[in-house]
Design goal:
Strand content: 15-25%
Helix content: 40-55%
Strand order of the largest sheet: 3-2-1-4-5-7-6
CATH architecture: 3-Layer(aba) Sandwich
CATH superfamily: LmbE-like
Radius of gyration: 17 Å
Distance between the termini: 15 Å
CATH topology: Rossmann fold
Mean pLDDT: 93
Structural class: alpha/beta
């Protein structure tokens, strides 16, 4: 059995990008650990969700713990940095935010956790942070450096399949408004092209838990949201596969060889 560490930027990122893979790995008997860089303090809470005086970071931490229980996560760790907010916001300049963290110091902290849990496989984000969020970009660089320090040889990047998204948009399965409701997100550079993706993980067997883990993040994801409003068929099409890139293979060649691998052990 393997020890897998998933490294995410904010609560709810784990559910969106890798929730199905985490659940399946736990089901198979592997130890699944989640490290979250921040508590998502800069998120925008749904109307009326917070109790008087309740801090968003505290609520999101509790939501993340509920999500971890649903996905079979054995251990949850926080790096303790503040949420940097979306690109270009004043919060990017906060010296205590993750974006401003010293790379070596943050990487040493992350490497200590990789060693603590005897990490065999680290899953972070692609070099663009999937969609360019400062904290996602930092997860990529800190994760890569931490793996070097801790001697973790197997590193994967969670990403989105840009070609599959284009196909769903063309078919009407998802609308432009689902991806373009925030002008701070560069939809043209969202995820990676299929030619650079190495792994397609079929997570349909865990979709009920993935959806439940998304719903656990009620301060951010409401029943009317893109993630939960779609019917079961559309949800399976949009989220039934999770996309990963083997970092070593990507560095060796930008061309995918053959079909997508279907297991991270391939």
């Amino acid at each position: 059995m393997a020890n897998l560490v998933f490294f995410h930027a904010h609560p709810d990122d784990e559910a969106i990008s890798t929730g199905g893979t985490m659940a399946l790995m736990s089901d198979a008997g592997h130890r699944v650990v989640l490290v979250c860089a921040t508590r998502g303090e800069m998120g925008e809470p749904a109307d009326g969700v917070l109790e008087p005086g309740e801090l968003l970071g505290d609520r999101r931490e509790q939501e993340l713990k509920q999500s971890c229980d649903l996905l079979g996560v054995e251990a949850l760790e926080f790096l303790g940095y503040k949420d940097s907010g979306m690109v270009g916001e004043p919060s990017n300049d906060d010296p205590t935010c993750f974006w401003q963290a010293d790379l070596e110091a943050a990487s040493e902290q992350m490497a200590a956790l990789l060693s603590k849990y005897e990490c065999d496989i680290l899953v972070g984000y692609d070099p663009h942070g999937v969609y360019g969020h400062p904290d996602h970009l930092k997860v990529h660089t800190v994760g890569a450096r931490a793996a070097e320090i801790a001697g973790v040889e197997r590193v994967f990047w969670a990403t989105a399949n840009r070609n599959a998204i284009d196909e769903m948009r063309a078919s009407g399965a998802i609308g432009d408004e689902d991806l373009e409701d925030d002008d701070r997100v560069d939809t043209e550079a969202f995820g990676m092209p299929a030619s650079e993706i190495t792994h397609a993980i079929d997570v349909r067997a865990a979709l009920d838990r993935k959806r439940a883990s998304l719903a656990a993040h009620a301060s951010q994801i409401t029943d009317e949201s893109f993630f939960l409003a779609m019917d079961d068929v559309a949800f399976a099409q949009a989220f039934g596969t999770e996309w990963l890139v083997d970092a070593a293979r990507h560095e060796a060649s930008n061309d995918r060889q053959g079909d997508f691998a279907t297991s991270i052990f391939d």
